Every structure is written in C-alpha cells, then in structure tokens.
Amino acid sequence: MKLRSRRKGKAGVKWHADATYIKVEGRWCYLYRAIDKEGNLVEVYLSDVRDQAAAEAFFEQAQNTGGVTPEQITTDKEQALYPAIHNVFGGKTKHRDSKYMNNIIEQDHRGIKSRYKVMKGFKSFFCALIFCTAFEEIRRCFRMKNKTRAERSGLIASKISNFNELFVAAT
C-alpha cells in the first residue's frame, strides 16, 4: 500500500495500455497493465475475461490510483478498449491505436513473463493478483532507467535503504 500511495499524482499524461496472458489455476487470465511515456507504472489489473467491462474497470482503477486523467492512451487494436476508453474518460482522452507505437509496453511485459515462466503458473487467482501487483510495484521502486552500470552500482544502496524505510514505517 505504501508503494502504491507514493505513485499518486506522479503518472504522466501519456499512457501505454495493454493486456497479456498469464496462467492461473490451469486457465488463461488477462493481466492489464498501463505505463506512462517514461515507463513508470500506472496500474496493474488482473481479470478472468478480456471484455469491455474488464477494460473499463481497469481504466477506472488506473485513474483512481494514479490521480491523473490521461491526455493520450496508446493501445493495440483490441476492440474492447475503444468503448472502454470513451466511457471512462469521455472525449478528453485521445486514443491512438497502433501495434507498433505500443512496443514500449509489449517489451515491458518481459519482466513479469520472465518471473512467471519460472513459477509455471499460479495456483489461485488471489495469489496471482497479489504477486503481480507486488512484483510490479517493487520492480518500479528499483528501476534505474538511463543509468550507466557505475551509476546503478552507486545508487543501489540508497534504493535498498529507501525500500527498507518504507516497510519499517508500514509495520
């Protein structure tokens, strides 16, 4: 909860949104994810179905968590996202739909997929939801984009101490 509350109001106004598949209880579920233009996490949402209602719930949760209404959302050409974006954000948000402009989030799926494949799926929906949310939050906490190897090695100690301070304050 502490990590999530730190993100409030810090998301950019240009989002990339997409859904990827993960296996839960032997069946495929959909992990909706949104990141901003700089690659910062906006929201993660797990759903059994990939339809308009799930997409609307995802965008409403993203808007509430982030505290920001996006000016532009880039998605692939998934049909359920068109009415969902219009219903949640109205005409205030421009919707770009190009499978090539959304490569930033397609590549960002690699993080959760690489961890998920080792685990060979999840045993329950609740465990999958908790893991995916916590994994993305912690991954973003330690993210050091556009840093050289020397800069990253110098920053890792401060990142770990900041992370520990968050959890000491939470308990």
How does this model look, in words?
The chain is an alpha/beta fold and 171 residues long. The protein has one domain: Ribonuclease H-like superfamily/Ribonuclease H (Nucleotidyltransferase, domain 5), CATH 3.30.420.10. Helices cover 50% and strands 21% of the residues. It contains six helices and five strands; from the N terminus they run αβββαβαβααα. It has a five-stranded mixed sheet with strand order 3-2-1-4-5, with helices on both faces. Helix 2 packs across helix 3. It is globular, with a radius of gyration of 16 Å.
Describe the structure concisely.
With about 170 residues, this protein is an alpha/beta fold. The chain is built from six helices and five strands, in the order αβββαβαβααα. The protein has helices at about 1-5, 50-65, 80-90, 105-120, 125-140, 150-170, and strands at about 15-25, 25-35, 40-45, 70-75, 95.
List keywords for this structure.
five-stranded mixed beta sheet; 21% strand; 6 helices; 5 strands; Nucleotidyltransferase, domain 5; 171 residues; alpha/beta
Number of strands: 5
Overall residue-averaged pLDDT value: 80
Give the helix/strand class.
alpha/beta
CATH topology: Nucleotidyltransferase, domain 5
CA-atom Rg in angstroms: 16 Å
CATH superfamily: Ribonuclease H-like superfamily/Ribonuclease H
